[in-house]
Records
---
Amino acid sequence: MLNQITIRAIVEDDNERLASIIRSSLLEFGAARPGTVYFDESTDHLFEVFKKSGSVYFVAVKNNIVIGGAGIYPTGGLPAHVCELVKMYLSNEARGYGLGKLLLQTCIIAARKHGYTKMYLESMPELKTAIAMYTKAGFTFINKAIGNSGHTGCSIWMTKEL
């Protein structure tokens, strides 16, 4: 399946589909609660959000249909050399083929190109498969949030040296 996927930068027309994927995923895993991206208004405006310097959002497309995405962002309160892996979600039909790993690798490469030396992420216990992927990719658990993401519904925090 991966050979049928195109990874590209986000465009404005992707906003609605990505918001749908993110919210559907959180509902599916029982993680659609306050303090998460489910209720974050920026979820509906990712193209605009990722115009910020030091950020980039990648979209996975198959047969001209957006099936997922992930990005890096210089979240407020993080040290200058640290970016946050953000809004990494796949549609149900896109899971289990290694696409999450491909998007993560794409984000890591982009983070290095932007001069970041560490990546931070926030997650939830319900997202077990994603957490296992992050661990396998070299992320380690830390015991508190860093930065000011505003996502108080997350209780898992991890970092990775780049």
Note: The mean pLDDT is 95.
---
Amino acid sequence: MKFFLFITIFIFLFSTAPNTFALTPTPSPKATTTPQATEEPKGINILNNLKDRIASRVAQLNLVEKRGILATVEKVTDTQITVIDKRGDIRLIDVDELTHFSSPSAKGTFGISDITKGSYLDILGLYNKQSKRLLARFVDVVSIPVYIHGAVMSQDLENFTVTVI
């Protein structure tokens, strides 16, 4: 019986939540006028200006993409290369001071003046969708391999030639 009474008192004491009080009262928010109310139009103007600049930059980025072309040189000037691509379309390639030229056969410096008509170029750069021009960043002279299909009829080991049918 004592055990039953002890458990009842124990449950009664710990089942009720004690009241707690703060030592200092929490201050309530007061209605005051803030100086930010007069600065809102200035902040809105700055925000709108920033939105317009971001929108124009996004539009510019959508007009330009990275692209590469493999083509034959038709004409070369100081700042532009005219090429004919695989489909027979004429492409205009703009060249600036950031364009890097290279050729496997060059012994030293290689530039736009060393490019000749009829050579094959591998061009990487920024393609403008609106003007349909490529601003070249890397221009490499390449040799396109020739593939021959058939059966070997004879071979000349002294002259290193093969006859293919």
Note: The chain is about 25% helix and 35% strand.
---
Amino acid sequence: MTAVEIVYKYNVPPTETTMRAMVNVREVYGIRRLKFNESENTIRVEYDATRLSESQVSTLLRRTGLDLGDKLQLA
């Protein structure tokens, strides 16, 4: 397993429907953790890079209805 973390900004706070859809993302094999930071409008995703690519992760997030913005550089 190769654990990778990525952080994305989101443009609009997630709706209740989007948050319900996030439950399904958490169940995807390879997604390890999702963490929202409401004060910074970011979502941090930890995933297994041997199972998923960064592109697949962003697609999963967008399919929930989350208005995904830029990927942030981790320090």
Note: The two ends are 22 Å apart (CA to CA).
---
Amino acid sequence: MNKRGFIDAETAAHVLPLGVFLLMLSVPDLLGLGADRAAPDAAWYVARPEHWLFPLQTIVCFALLVVFRRYYQFTPHTGWLLAAAAGAAAIVLWIAPGYLFESVQLGEGWWKYLGLAPRVDGFDPTFIKESSETWYVAAVAMRMLRLVVLVPLVEEIFWRGFLMRYLVDPDGDFWKVPFGTFDRRSLVLVTAMFVIIHAPVDYLAAAIYGLLAYWIAVRTKSLSACVVMHATANLLLGIYILTTERWGYW
């Protein structure tokens, strides 16, 4: 914020990409689209809006990142190996409850809030494969681009690049707060907000991931390391999803 109370360009650069990303997710609800609302014979773009919404969301948010690119400070490029290892560990913990659920064959219960639930309903590109192998490959490629590149950038730019520093000194010039500065309030609030934007079934995993990501930010003092951690975790998750067809993870 500037002295007049308006959002300055640097703050907008860190907040708008994720804000637009999340806002676009509400489009199906606003327009009444989706498999749970559409008629049985509805066209794919009505019954499965995610197949056009996610690519559009990817393009729009990438455009915002390009427009605001001069405001992002990814250096120093340090701690990438540690960040990648943390991302790998975090995603193993993320998918482990779902794997355990299927191995033990539990029924529905309160334990779903620990991630112990079936993960089969979600973005499923296989229906395209029956009509066009080319469109199937394109759909998977766009989905992976969103998962592995876009999401790590827009989320880490906001959570670690902006909010983590803002909460250290919300009434002052928070942009002067060194990246990776530890603060108990920012640790709790950033992690809590990161958890809330995920589905309840992922709350526990998101909390663990959020704490690890905060530690990486403090340890490495590098926004790029946070992006590498997130990208590594999402890449491994994407590979797991495509291998097991557990579409509920995305």
Note: The CA atoms of residues 31 and 46 lie 9 Å apart.
